[in-house]
Structures are given as C-alpha cells and as structure tokens.
Design brief:
seven-stranded mixed beta sheet; about 200 residues; alpha/beta; Rossmann fold
C-alpha cells in the first residue's frame, strides 16, 4: 500500500456527508492535541497532508484521505478541551459517535494517547467501545521521544499487560518527531484495509 500517494478527499460535517463509495477505512481517534494530524502526516510521509495546530480541537470535521481507490484514512474530531461553544462540541461529538457506531466500511481504529499520560478516561472508553463492537484497535503511545528509552518501554509493557485479555487490541511506541514506529503502524493499517475488501 503506497502511503506516500495519500491525498485529502473531503471533510464531512455530518455522518450523511461521508463518502458513499468506501470499501474500507481506518479512523484515527484521540483526545484533543494527542497528535492525530501529525501521526497521519508521518505515516503518509507528507508534512502538510493533515492540518496540525497547537490549538487543541482544531479538527472538528471527519476528514477523509484517499490512500487507494475507495480506501480511506479518517481523521476524527479530538475529544476533550476544544475551545468551541458547547453546542458545537455536542454536535460534533454526536456525529463522531454515529460514525463510530454505524459506519460499515470502518475496518479498524488507531487510538492515540500521550505516553506521558496514557489511557485517560476517553482512551479507555474508546477501547471498551471497540471491544464491544468487535472492531480492532491499535494504540499509538505518542511522543515516545519525550521519555528515556527504558521508561517508554516500561509504559508500553504496562499498557500491553492491561490489554492482554482483550483480543484485537494492541499497542506500540510512536513518535512523529523521530519517525519512530512508522513501519509497524503502516503494516497494521494495510492489513486492515486489505482484509476488508
């Protein structure tokens, strides 16, 4: 799968705006400022594919990127501290929930969590939701460059131990800044998109 050829396709404000021709897609979820856009850019080897911002909650739409014909990566709105009116936030959290529960081509979920504060309440909620929906979930412990190697490894082992009884839930270290863990997550995404043809 050629990640370097990935292109932005469209932004969906509502569930009904999502592309109708999708065969398979992998969604990126995480708290506001978890680094979803940076991760997509690193994985696709393009610096400006997904818009990044220092302002949490910049992504307020479902952003679709074509990786191959009728196969997409989806950047989901961040959960948490977005500086938007409550009414707006409630609306896009509803759209997000509908997408996660009802989107048939959804083949897997990449969940991003800052390695310095892993598995906050939202992250655990997403893991539970994925398990109940029989949706594979792969956790990226982001900003792994911020910890020494031993400390990063210990955090990963702790998280993996917590997941060991769950089928289809996995975790890895990841750093957009240092391009760490790119090949591992690419392989995971490719498998999901190819399995769901």
């Amino acid at each position: 799968m050629n990640f370097n050829q990935t292109q932005f396709l469209t932004s969906a404000a509502t569930f009904s705006d999502c592309p109708k021709n999708s065969l398979a897609e992998v969604a990126f979820a995480g708290r506001s400022n978890a680094g979803k856009s940076s991760a997509i850019n690193s994985i696709c080897n393009q610096s400006r594919l997904a818009r990044t911002s220092k302002t949490p909650g910049r992504t307020q739409l479902l952003n679709f990127f074509t990786i191959e014909s009728n196969k997409y990566l989806v950047d989901l709105p961040g959960y948490g501290f977005a500086k938007v009116p409550l009414k707006v936030k409630d609306q896009w959290q509803r759209e997000l929930e509908q997408y996660l529960r009802q989107r048939k081509p959804l083949s897997g979920l990449i969940l991003l969590s800052d390695i310095r504060h892993p598995l906050k309440e939202f992250d655990r909620m997403m893991v539970d939701w994925a398990v109940h929906s029989n949706l594979p979930l792969h956790l990226l412990l982001t900003k792994a460059d911020k910890l020494k190697r031993g400390a990063a490894q210990n955090t990963l082992l702790k998280v993996q131990k917590e997941f060991e009884t769950l089928t289809d839930v996995s975790a890895q270290l990841f750093s957009s800044l240092k391009n760490k863990g790119i090949e591992e997550v690419r392989e995971r995404i490719s498998n999901w998109l190819e399995t769901n043809n």
